[in-house]
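Now for one record:
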Amino acid sequence: MFEIDGAGGVLEDTYAASGSGTSLATGALERLYHEDLTLSEGVSVAASAVDSAMERDTASGNGITVARITAEDVTMESYDSLTEVH
């Protein structure tokens, strides 16, 4: 994965977070992410990271949108809360 920061720098990593809740989301990603996640587990980890940011950063908005990207397709779903994702 590649992330482009606000100054145009390119960072390569296995996961990324951006926006006003970055530090909160990154903390959740560091705690929950591991290399051999299934797609379902990855969705849960990503949604938990967004939820962490939403709970403590009012600028992170409300609701969670998850994009599932596979070799076959891309699907997007929106949820009002973390409990709906699981």
User: Anything to note?
Assistant: Residues 2-61 form one domain. The two ends are 25 Å apart (CA to CA). Strands lie at 2-4, 10-12, 64-69, 74-79.
